[in-house]
Amino acid sequence: MGRKVTLATCSLNQWALDFDGNLRRILNSIEIAKANGAKYRLGPELEICGYGCADHFYESDTLLHCFQVLKELLESPLTQDIICDVGMPVMHHNVRYNCRVLFLNKKILLIRPKMLLANHGNNREFRWFSPWSQHVEEYFLPRMIQDVTGQVTVPFGDAVLSTKDTCIGSEICAELWNPRSPHVDMGLDGVEIFTNSSASYHELRKADHRVNLVKSATTKSGGIYLFANQKGCDGDRLYYDGCSMIAINGDIVAQGVQFSLDDVEVVTATLDLEDVRSYRGERCHPHMEYEHKPYHRIKVDFSLSDCKDIFLPTHQPVDWVFHSPEEEISLGPACWLWDYLRRSGQAGFLLPLSGGVDSSSSACIVYSMCVLVCQAVKDGNVQVLEDVRRLVSDSSYRPEDPRELCGRLFTTCYMASENSSEDTRNRAKELAAQIGSNHLNINIDMAVKGILGIFSVVMGKLPNFRVNGGSNRENLALQNVQARVRMILAYLFAQLCLWAQGKPGGLLVLGSANVDESLTGYFTKYDCSSADINPIGGVSKMDLKRFLQYCTDHFQLTALKSILAAPPTAELEPLTEGQVSQTDEVMMGSGTCNQYQHASNFLSLAVQVAAKVKHFFRMYSVNRHKMTTVTPSYHAESYGPDDNRFDLRPFLYNTRWSWQFGCIDQEVGHGSADAFCISII
């Protein structure tokens, strides 16, 4: 009997409830795995229906269609002579479970339900599924599956496969991140190959955690670890960022890419089981006698190795090179935008481009998307070429220049008012020229005056800006009218500008409010922050500035230099001698620790920090209602302000925070350093 095994894992760009497309991509991955000599193929979590089905998991049709797809997979000649490991929801005893279904040659070997569910951040698995306890039962198959397999029941539970040459055990996504991961007991019980099927979404600076967990899993007790992950936008705010990998004894030996436009990516590796056995014999033998859970073994009359494998080369360790946060911002949201665009049925994007950091960041991400599309077509990606031809309504089109493609897919518009400066107008125009977008100049004064005229006729009074003697209420209302008119015009032009040019389709409106503005509410409800989607809504202002500096160098977009140097401003109040009089930092009350470095003593510093803390919570609570209508944004940070999705908090607050602020004031008044630090942490 041989000892070398060839294994395959994959990243699939699945789409929630797209059963036809999901089946096609699963079969494609199996075909590639077999062509590479693999005898075991692992796929992402819930790959048959897509991970993001959310409350569609409640519907019996979702479960039915999953079994219909499973039937197609069992009957396909592509799935013969390879152990296939696919993910789908299964109902057992009227309870839904997130499961892996492992089958070989039209026989289901095991249904393995998830035992440790993900229920933090964006994950709500306890809403739809129940965790399985550590035992094995018999599961009665639906008749349509019985007709194919000839089986009435199959094992359902926490078991492992015992082939002629090795032993294979499964983990599912969050089980790897848990302090009591199943691979620990499985390793102690002699399991040599661990698999993990994930739907792990992108967050800035997260990839290394994932890689380190996989390496750690096999460093402790040896073994081979396969990690599969979903990729792409499957229908909501999340982008699943691939990174499928294979490790042995603490070393990564094969890895997939984190960001790409490929719908199917298969990672294979040939490894020697004797390396696992030698590693354990040398380093882990004294620990194998520890008390551990004995696993139910399912015997499989199949071998992953071959007696003729003596000259088969094995994969060697590789060094994983991680993207910088700036590269992640350039690539992740760009891939997300491409998936959203091609699946939405629209013909491109429209972005109100103000000449500031935020809207310029959204514009640069669209340009990055065009760069990726051109590169994918150059690399022979047939699906991307088909999609882009459909988007531009030209069956012979072949994109080669990102700027030219940007002109076809991307419309930017500068919406000027009497309060706009020439500086911002020129900055927007210059950036649009460098990325190649179809740029429009729109003046909103006529619309603003028309709306104020209606108010004046009805109420008999005309509001004034503060600099012209108006009150704060008048000043804010006049700013909001301008901002909201821009939102209305953005949607009007998105719907009709292609029509005016004699072209089919409409445009998706892009927003450009960053995560800091969302947290503090520094935007007008139903202004240009109200859009179809927002590629930067989960990214901080500080990261966006670093991203624009990266784009300046990487894409040679020199227009960004003046944008980064300019003070950020909404330009909603009258200019002073032609110059901007309103800046975002003053309006937001923001600041950094640099403001405090000259404090003469701790109490002075404490007073200033306390003021900042109270200002933040007041701004958050006063403006929290805005988040109930915020544009769906790309999730990029470990925290997200999305109402009722990530940030499950009220939107009607007692904004005085009398008790809480009183505690802060009391500690500051006492001048106690220790007590004050505790009160604000």
From TrEMBL:
<keyword id="KW-0547">Nucleotide-binding</keyword>
<dbReference type="InterPro" id="IPR003010">
    <property type="entry name" value="C-N_Hydrolase"/>
</dbReference>
<feature type="domain" description="CN hydrolase">
    <location>
        <begin position="5"/>
        <end position="273"/>
    </location>
</feature>
<dbReference type="InterPro" id="IPR014729">
    <property type="entry name" value="Rossmann-like_a/b/a_fold"/>
</dbReference>
<dbReference type="Pfam" id="PF02540">
    <property type="entry name" value="NAD_synthase"/>
</dbReference>
<keyword id="KW-0067">ATP-binding</keyword>
<comment type="subunit">
    <text>Homohexamer.</text>
</comment>
<dbReference type="InterPro" id="IPR022310">
    <property type="entry name" value="NAD/GMP_synthase"/>
</dbReference>
<dbReference type="GO" id="GO:0003952">
    <property type="term" value="F:NAD+ synthase (glutamine-hydrolyzing) activity"/>
</dbReference>
<dbReference type="Pfam" id="PF00795">
    <property type="entry name" value="CN_hydrolase"/>
</dbReference>
<dbReference type="GO" id="GO:0004359">
    <property type="term" value="F:glutaminase activity"/>
</dbReference>
<dbReference type="GO" id="GO:0009435">
    <property type="term" value="P:NAD+ biosynthetic process"/>
</dbReference>
<dbReference type="GO" id="GO:0005737">
    <property type="term" value="C:cytoplasm"/>
</dbReference>
<comment type="similarity">
    <text>In the C-terminal section; belongs to the NAD synthetase family.</text>
</comment>
<dbReference type="InterPro" id="IPR014445">
    <property type="entry name" value="Gln-dep_NAD_synthase"/>
</dbReference>
<keyword id="KW-0436">Ligase</keyword>
<dbReference type="InterPro" id="IPR003694">
    <property type="entry name" value="NAD_synthase"/>
</dbReference>
<protein>
    <recommendedName>
        <fullName>Glutamine-dependent NAD(+) synthetase</fullName>
        <ecNumber>6.3.5.1</ecNumber>
    </recommendedName>
</protein>
<dbReference type="InterPro" id="IPR036526">
    <property type="entry name" value="C-N_Hydrolase_sf"/>
</dbReference>
<keyword id="KW-0520">NAD</keyword>
<comment type="pathway">
    <text>Cofactor biosynthesis; NAD(+) biosynthesis; NAD(+) from deamido-NAD(+) (L-Gln route): step 1/1.</text>
</comment>
<dbReference type="GO" id="GO:0005524">
    <property type="term" value="F:ATP binding"/>
</dbReference>
